[in-house]
Design brief:
Keywords: Monooxygenase, Oxidoreductase. The chain is an alpha+beta fold. The protein folds into three domains: 131 residues, Butyryl-Coa Dehydrogenase, subunit A, domain 1 (Orthogonal Bundle); 101 residues, Beta Barrel (Butyryl-CoA Dehydrogenase, subunit A, domain 2), CATH 2.40.110.10; 163 residues, Butyryl-CoA Dehydrogenase, subunit A, domain 3. It has 13 helices and nine strands. A hairpin with a 2-residue loop joins strand 8 and strand 9. Helix 11 runs antiparallel to helix 12 and helix 11 crosses helix 13. The longest helix has 33 residues. The protein is globular, with a radius of gyration of 22 Å. The two termini are 42 Å apart.
């Protein structure tokens, strides 16, 4: 059964889900339900080229897309601690959808990070009630998008190599530099805005269905009032503005760990049902093969350890979210060091597990029909987003000298 056939028609409206979760545990159970649906044809969908519209509809219909939204507007009212767990659960079944979901949640939260109180209230109400799915054209390695000031209007012009969420998004976060200044401006625009063209050119070995192709931004217009955090064309800064990087890096951590968990669980099921003991071993059943048992014990212990670290760092971050207006530079920097440590360990463990599971499966498991390679391809593709040794350097410099990372697009 495909996702389209199995997709619920809506929460509380005769669909698969007739209630909205209210506790973190209930939300995690909901994410597991979604992962179960995603897993049914994950191997086949990994080979597909169509945009994941049904998968995004599933995230919306399950309530996961609005889990951070205010309860009074139909959202889940949950914390980032819970949101990270949901990303991890979704990614166990499909790393691409785990990434799409995580990026969506970051951009959903962007108004909280940068906006004025009035913008935050307006965006969160509209995004929750209308179940917007967010994309973002904010790749910092490309040339800056240029912004022209035309009185009451901002005009964005440029291009970005990557724009995750592109064709499946309802709204897109744009970012650029105001012409003649060094002032960066974020704004949310409809994804069908005139001049915003998404190109179907994402053709990578992994994370194939993240809609991460390039985008052309040809004089896209929006009101100055949508410039996040600006009052009378002047930005209102606070340290909390810079928490976007720790958030997105923890998003990465959690879908890496979700992919690793999916690989390990899928491999264990194959081992239980299909793997044979080696002919020169002294056992008849693969479940008694000491090398196989050791491998699962080793990988599980490593994964549990990094999951625990990720959860601890998420809890630390939630304390910063809870007092956004009083976060200090030192607190932000110390937290980023912890995030960097989690990112480094999650990268290494996820790559080790997704590549190493084949040692417990046997040659027949390399048949493309099983799709075990997708786990490694997905992790390998995204872990190149920013070099992991620079994350270790953040940690090492802090340990040796007390240095804290300067806020950048990657630290």
């Amino acid at each position: 059964m495909t996702i389209t056939e199995n997709r619920p028609s809506g929460t509380g409206a005769g669909g698969r889900w007739t209630t909205t979760p209210t506790t973190p545990e209930e939300w995690i159970d909901r994410a597991r339900d979604v992962a179960t649906i995603l897993a049914e044809d994950a191997v086949a969908r990994d080979r597909g080229t169509e945009p994941p519209l049904a998968e995004v509809a599933l995230l919306k219909d399950s309530g996961l897309a609005t889990v951070l939204g205010p309860v009074e507007f139909g959202g889940g009212g949950q914390t980032w601690e819970t949101a990270y767990r949901l990303i991890r659960e979704v990614a166990t079944a499909d790393g691409s959808i785990g990434q799409l979901y995580g990026y969506h949640l970051l951009w959903f939260w962007a108004a909280r990070l940068v906006g004025t109180p009035e913008q935050i209230a307006a965006v969160e109400q509209a995004a929750t009630e209308s179940r917007w799915f967010f994309g973002g054209a904010v790749n910092p390695r490309d040339n800056d998008v240029e912004i022209a000031d035309e009185g009451d209007t901002l005009v964005y012009h440029g291009a970005k190599t990557f724009s995750t969420g592109s064709r499946v998004s309802d709204v897109t976060v744009l970012e650029g530099v105001l012409s003649g200044t060094d002032t960066h401006i974020f704004a949310i625009v409809p994804s069908n805005s005139e001049g915003l063209t998404f190109h179907d050119d994402w053709d990578n070995i992994g994370q194939r269905r993240t809609e991460s192709g390039s985008v052309t931004i040809d004089n896209v217009r929006t009101d100055w009032s949508s410039a996040a955090g600006f009052v009378d064309k002047v930005f209102q800064p606070r340290v909390y503005n810079t928490l976007n990087v720790p958030i997105i890096q923890l998003v990465f951590v959690n879908f890496y760990l979700g992919i690793a968990r999916g690989a390990l669980d899928s491999a264990a099921e194959y081992t239980r049902t299909t793997t044979r003991a080696w002919l020169h071993s002294t056992v008849d059943n693969a479940l008694d093969e000491p090398y196989i048992v050791d491998l699962y014990g080793d990988y599980t212990a490593k994964l549990w350890a990094v999951e625990a670290l990720a959860d601890a760092v998420a809890a630390e971050q939630q304390q910063l979210h809870d007092r956004a207006d009083s976060v200090t530079e030192a607190e932000r920097g110390e937290h980023e060091v912890r995030v960097a440590a989690a990112k480094a360990r999650a990268t290494e463990v996820a790559l080790e597990i997704t590549a190493g599971i084949f040692e417990a499966l046997g040659a027949r498991a390399t048949a493309s029909s099983h799709g075990f390679d997708r786990f490694w391809r997905n992790v390998r593709t995204h872990t190149l987003h920013d070099p992991v040794f620079y994350k270790r350097r953040e940690v090492g410099r802090h340990v040796l000298t007390g240095e804290l990372p300067t806020p950048t697009w990657y630290s």
